């Protein structure tokens, strides 16, 4: 019997995503033996600092990718927004599951940024979210919060923060979508890849790549390809407030991008569209346009 070992972070959300990947594989091959291997990452262990200060969002992937390189797992399941823009040599993003709601949500009672009381303390570890929040509401006070979904919701409930941001996709996968109000993209454009689950494997593993390609959701892969190309053009990291979201509309791909200074004072936006088959080129063009018009300090990270 064929077997596939899927590596993932050990958080409830990460395990749920890995289970969805396993279910997709089993749906195509009922006799396939799929094992989920939980791996604790540096990003999970260090929770009192921003990722930007301890090595970047790749800290959620490096131990998993090490296990992949050493052959302890066959593939890795990731939240695409947590992946570095350029994968390590020898690895490929072989499939993406159908995307969930890509929007950010506001947890804490208010239904929008406009409803938050003046001077409210908002928990976030994301410079993208912080910058967009301050662009709309410079009176709000950002404060560092990290941890899994349950931890962050509990800290808001306990009164440590007036509200926090959470990805609607993660809440939906955990059956908790009612715990936050989705924010309009005009107020909070999502991160590149937000809501998408990607499966990474070794580039040379042809049989597994073929197996994973069979569960790839084409529209999601197309949109995320454009978003990640925009990010690559800006050499974007979690030190840079960059947002990007693509959608398919009447057979065309429409991509919106946003670049801000961390304080939200300066913001640049771009919108590009074109054939879905040119997703990477559209993303690259949009990213280059933002780079050419970048406000001072926006790309210094």
Write structural notes for this entry.
This protein is α/β, with parallel strands linked by helices and 301 residues long. It has 3 domains: 3-99 and 193-216, Periplasmic binding protein-like II (D-Maltodextrin-Binding Protein, domain 2), CATH 3.40.190; 104-182, D-Maltodextrin-Binding Protein, domain 2 (3-Layer(aba) Sandwich); 230-289, Porphobilinogen deaminase, C-terminal domain (Double Stranded RNA Binding Domain, 2-Layer Sandwich), CATH 3.30.160.40. The chain contains 10 helices and 13 strands. The strands form 3 sheets. The chain has a 5-stranded mixed β-sheet, with helices on both faces. Strands 7-6-8-5-9 form a 5-stranded mixed β-sheet, sandwiched between helices. A hairpin with a 2-residue loop joins β11 (242-249) and β12. α9 (218-233) packs parallel to α10 (279-292). The protein is globular.
Quick rundown:
This protein has helices at residues 12-28, 42-45, 51-54, 62-69, 127-136, 149-157, 168-173, 206-213, 218-233, 279-292; strands at residues 3-8, 33-38, 75-79, 91-96, 104-107, 121-123, 141-143, 163-167, 181-182, 197-202, 242-249, 252-260, 267-275.
């Amino acid at each position: 019997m064929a077997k596939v070992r899927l590596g993932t972070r050990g958080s409830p959300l990460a395990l749920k995503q890995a289970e969805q990947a396993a279910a997709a594989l089993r749906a195509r091959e009922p006799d396939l033996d799929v094992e989920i291997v939980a791996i604790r990452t540096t990003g999970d262990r260090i929770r009192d600092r921003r990722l930007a200060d301890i090595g970047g969002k790749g800290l959620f992937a490096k131990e998993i990718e090490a296990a992949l390189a050493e052959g302890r797992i066959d593939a890795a399941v990731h939240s695409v927004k947590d992946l570095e823009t350029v994968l390590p040599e020898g690895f490929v993003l072989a499939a993406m599951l159908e995307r969930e709601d890509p929007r950010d949500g506001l947890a804490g009672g208010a239904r929008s940024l406009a409803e938050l009381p003046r001077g409210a303390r908002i928990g976030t570890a994301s410079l993208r979210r912080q910058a967009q929040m301050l662009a709309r509401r410079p009176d709000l006070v950002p404060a560092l919060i990290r941890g899994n979904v349950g931890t962050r919701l509990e800290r808001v409930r306990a009164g440590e923060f007036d509200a926090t941001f959470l990805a609607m996709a993660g809440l939906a996968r955990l059956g908790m979508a009612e715990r936050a109000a989705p924010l309009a993209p005009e107020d909070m454009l999502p991160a590149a890849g937000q809501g998408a689950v990607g499966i990474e494997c070794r580039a040379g593993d042809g049989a597994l790549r073929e197996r994973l390609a069979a569960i790839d959701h084409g529209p999601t892969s197309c949109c995320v390809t454009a978003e990640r190309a925009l990010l690559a053009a800006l050499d974007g990291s979690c030190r840079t407030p960059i947002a990007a979201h693509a959608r398919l509309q009447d057979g065309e791909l429409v991509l919106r991008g946003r670049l801000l200074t961390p304080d939200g004072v300066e913001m640049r936006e771009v919108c590009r569209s074109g054939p879905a088959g040119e997703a990477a080129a559209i993303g690259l063009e949009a990213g280059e346009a933002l780079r050419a018009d970048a406000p001072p300090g926006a790309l210094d990270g």
